[in-house]
Design goal:
The complex is a heterodimer of chains A (330) and B (298). Chain A is α/β, with parallel strands linked by helices and 330 residues long. Chain A has one domain (11-328): Rossmann fold (3-Layer(aba) Sandwich). Chain A contains 9 helices and 14 strands. In chain A, strand 9 and strand 10 form a beta hairpin. Chain B is mainly alpha-helical and 298 residues long. Chain B has one domain (64-297): Orthogonal Bundle (MetI-like fold), CATH 1.10.3720.10. Classes of the chains: A alpha/beta (330), B mainly alpha (298).
Chain lengths: 330, 298
Amino acid sequence: MSEGNASPPVLELRNVSKTYQIKQGMFGERKPLKAVNDVSLSLQRGDVLGLVGESGCGKSTLAKILLGLEAPTSGEVLVDGEPIGAQNRRLLARRIQPIFQDPYSSLNPRKSIRDIISLPLRVHGIGDSASQDKAVREILDVVGLPSRVMNSYPSQMSGGQRQRVAIARALIMKPEVVVCDEPTSALDVSVQSQILNLLGELRREFGLTYLFISHNLAVVEHLATRVAVMYLGRIVEEAPVGALFDEPRHPYTEALLASVLTPEPDLGVPDTHLGATYPNPIEPPTGCHFHPRCARVMERCKGVAPQLTSDGEHSVECHLYGQESGQAVA
Amino acid sequence: MTRTADTLLEEIQGPTPGQMLRKRVFGHQGLLFGVAVLGLLLLVAIFAPLLAPHDPYAQDLLARMQPPVFLGGSWEHPLGTDHLGRDYLSRLIYGARISLLIGGFAALISGLIGTAMGVAAGYFGGRVDMAVTFLINVRLAMPVVLVALAIVAVFGGSLQVVILVLGFLLWDRFAVVMRSSTLQVRSREYVTAAQAIGCSTSRVILSEIMPNIVNNLIVVVTLEMAHAILLEAALSFLGLGVQPPTPSWGLMVSEGKQMMLFEPWLVAIPGITLFVLVLAINLLGDGLRDVTAPENRS
């Protein structure tokens, strides 16, 4: 996707898979659950990749792999062209930092804001306590909080303020990549836009790269430069944000875009043709994983898994766009 | 930065955590009562030789079972004397040493064992959890008093044996409570955040998890301390705890029980002190949990 660029992508995933062994019942046999299945992605500096998909499609597992909290079963993650398996876990923490969904759970209620934000500095032994204090003051200013909150505790702050603290903690080490796992979905609508605008400003100011996980398509359209659509552990479509929203190719993307509620109550709940059932990820459907729910299913989809086809920027994994090639799945 | 700028900064930043804590502590009556009573008993235990009017072992068979002063006794023996003519107040004062020693050390030993096991089980899960849960079940299958009786019967009753027996028997509640508290806390996102920041496992446990479960620990410590003190009294009452003539409150109840119908104060005085001590410890635990709980900070 980005072979033409001279600099290596700041973050690259090559054929990353994560398989969990799920035991059913006390004496049940262990069955593999492919939470992330052969995912390849690459982010250039300054990119914001929106990762969208239903609950349970593997978005959060992917985020955990990026943060080094889970080791991929196969494949590799590269930061600036270096595989992170070879890197020290602590070095990785300097370059990739998370912002979590729920600011009520992501801040330790026992710690003051000063302690929470300066924790990365203390863990990595950067500076003495005076310079750490100074850094905390500066980063509080950057995220738009007054420095008097330093002695406060999370329970004394609102959701939006807490999320600003979480952002400050993520940014104090000047990371290159920030993994945002639904950073606004636990917030009030009025606060959501403030946080999103803050994230956008910080990206311009510090040249940050975001992996932005969300199921809110409006948020993704607002912030992302590229969008990847995930279904049952696979990236089924990836494109620049304009192309994906203007002419979605994969039927699943079409359904997702159609599922957005409008403010017009008379229109009712949109019909996505998806049905209600999400397939059991332990026994995924044969062929194309999406075929039981697909509005444009063909005979070939039931037996043959589609392959990724790409025309430069826009890639999609669907028989509607592929060539005749395809591989049979047992 | 000049001095004035510093003070200005302090004013802007509002009360420090220390100031806010002080305010919460002095607004909590149960905690103050617990601290006062426990502190008083601690001082009494430490300075027992200075405070006791008589030698707690000195017998005076001519002055047996004199009533306490409020029942018409003399100020020579403010709480009367027991069946061997020993000064009851002096024995009570020395007995505080035994109760506090046993409560403190038994809670310390069992707290260390149980907390280590429970936190490890909750944090690591899997096989560690299975092993710890098995040990907890084994321990719960043993009746404490029976095992304590058997061990004391074999090794003989002494202060050290009682402390060790109780210490190694009372860790189950620590392990159960710490395990479930750790399980609750370890799935919170701030633990994940600390891991993503690059904290070591010991740092995650000590600095992220422990502060959030320590108020549960405090409650269990006080419960088990009270439990140990009562068990010591029970063992001494049965004649298998601290051996006479050592002054122990349980032993005093035991020695007074034959006279209970005629001289009820022999049982009532050590019984009331036991009750007040256990109540103070429990109030202290409740109060500490209240003032350190994050919900009460706002």
